[in-house]
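User: Need the bound-state model for S-adenosylmethionine:
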Amino acid sequence: MPTQELTFSKKYNLKHALKYHDKHRNTLSRRLSNWREQAIAEKALKLAGQPATVLDLPCGTGRFWALLARKKDRTILAADNSDAMLSVAREVMPPAVLERVQTFQSSAFDIQLANDSVDHVFCMRLLHHITRPEDRLAILSEFYRVARHSVAVSLWVDGNYKSLRRRKLEARRTHKTYQNRIVLQRRIVEREFSDAGFAIAGHYDFLKFYAMWRLYVLKKQL
Ligand SMILES: C[S@@+](CC[C@H](N)C(=O)[O-])C[C@H]1O[C@@H](n2cnc3c(N)ncnc32)[C@H](O)[C@@H]1O
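Assistant: Bound-state model below.
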C-alpha cells in the first residue's frame, strides 16, 4: 500500500516533538490526565491478555514505554512516522526502558513489518486525527495485517458533554479551515472496526459522560 502523507503528520518536527514531550508533564492537570490515560491503557493491555509482543504505533516520544515494559518478558516494538519524535524518545527515555524497545520509522498506512508479526498493536492518539473514513479503514486494515490477536485504539467519540460542546463551537466557527481532529459517532466507528475485521472486546472511557477520549480493545475475527 502506498504511504499517504496527511497534513497533520507534517507538524511533528523537532521543535514540536520537544513540545509534545513536555506537554504531558508540565501542569498538574496534564499530569493527572496522563496518569488516567496510562491507567486505562493498563486495563486495555490486561483485557487483551497481556500480549507478549506489542507494536506501539505511533509511539511519539515514548509516553507508554514504561507501562509496556512493566511486563518483564514483553517484546516491545515502537514506530512513528516522525523521525523527530523517535529521536526525542531516544533522548528522554531512561536507559532501562530504552533497552527494552526496538524503534523504527514507519507510517501507519504502510507498516514495515510482515503479516502477523506482533500479538498486539497499541495505538494511542492517532485515529482522532484521521478525518477520512477511507484512511481509517486503511490504517485499521494494516493493524489487522500485522497483529496476530488484538489492537487497542484511542479516539474521540460522541455521547458525552465535551463532544456536545465541541459540536456547538464548530457550528459557530465562521472560517472552515483544515480540520485536524475529529469526533466520531460511536455507531459509525464501531461499524468501521467490524468492516476492518475486528470484534470489540471492550472499551474504557477516560471520564465517562464527560470526556471524548475512549480506548477500544479489538480482537481479530479470523
Ligand atoms: C498525538 S501524537 C501521539 C503519540 C503517542 N501515541 C502518545 O500518545 O503520546 C501523534 C503521533 O502520530 C504520529 N503520526 C502522524 N502521522 C502518522 C502516520 N501516518 N503514521 C504513523 N504515525 C503518525 C506523529 O508523528 C505523532 O508522534
